[in-house]
Amino acid sequence: ATTLGASAAERGRYFGTAVAANKLSDSTYVGILNREFDMVTAENEMKIDALEPQQNQFNYANADRIVNHARNQGKKVRGHTLAWHSQQPGWMQNMSGSALRSAMLNHVTKVATYYRGKIHSWDVVNEAFADGSSGGRRDSNLQRTGNDWIEAAFRAARAADPGAKLCYNDYNTDNWSHAKTQGVYRMVQDFKTRGVPIDCVGFQAHFNSGNPVPSNYHTTLQNFANLGVDVQITELDIEGSGSTQAQQYQGVVQACLAVSRCNGVTVWGIRDSDSWRASGTPLLFDGSGNKKAAYNSVLSALNNG
Ligand code: G3I
């Protein structure tokens, strides 16, 4: 096929992008979005600070602009994210203990209930593991409510929307030999053993020279899939340009295609100028919306490789 979404669909997968609500009035942006992608993640609009700016007062306006646009165009939606140490509203940042635990679970329940039936996969918990060599949890106000906060969030999400796939999502978990990857792996293994409702693991896949695409990427994805969960590449971007960048993108897509439980790939923005990175050219379209070499290599991998 001739677009990312249609080509991925022929392989039984989706191809998505992060979308910002304030760009839905940009016709170049929307043209590429509508043509190329069949899955959408809100880049910021479904985070805790956006949806619950005051405690128990929810504002779904910007999130709904994205969800409605996607659904009207026949695209699926990935929910990002129900519980996270970052982008918490001020009232939540100042909470702790059982009050914070209750507020977090209330947020999970209310938001997952509001969107019940409309979300393909939820990032239930985002970035809960520490960087570095410990392989343990990241310290945060949520972690200090008790080590079981993650499974509590997953149980609340399952009760609120039994039809959505429930994912754990993190970055720097791509290299199988990294302690963080191993820590997440052990948590998922433990959840599956004890029947905690988890369906998928998201690999953010923000790559650059300090964090290159690992040669063992396929191994990482396959090992997680072997635990009995789906795997998804959720926030892909790769610093660089030209044929080097194109080859790296192709390698990531091929790694997903090689794992039957890898459901799809989402890139973290459309044009280079839409990227969260302050500088650089990490995406598939240039600032004018032209297809880059990386686009062509991804399309070719989806169709041939
Ligand atoms: O909307 C305000 C604007 O009104 C204000 O003038 C401006 C001044 O700084 O800030 C704007 O908000 C910014 C927002 O992006 C929208 O552009 C925030 O400051 C900025 O912090 C926020 O950054 C987002 C970042 O998450 C925050 O953690 C990025 O857009 C978003 O791409 C990024 O996404 C994360 C994923 O959620 C999780 N994984 C890593 C990924 C990349 O960091």
TrEMBL record:
Similarity remark: Belongs to the glycosyl hydrolase 10 (cellulase F) family.
Reaction catalysed by this enzyme: Endohydrolysis of (1->4)-beta-D-xylosidic linkages in xylans
Entry annotation: catalytic residues: 235
Name recorded for this polypeptide: Beta-xylanase
Top enzyme category: hydrolase
Transmembrane segments: none
Residues of the full protein shown: 35 to 339 of 446
Taxonomic classification: Bacteria, Bacillati, Actinomycetota, Actinomycetes, Pseudonocardiales
Protein biosynthesis as UniProt keyword: no
Domain annotation GH10: ranges: 1-301
Naturally occurring in which organism (per UniProt): Saccharothrix lopnurensis
Its EC number(s): 3.2.1.8
Keyword Hydrolase: yes
Record key words, sorted: Carbohydrate metabolism, Glycosidase, Hydrolase, Polysaccharide degradation, Signal, Xylan degradation
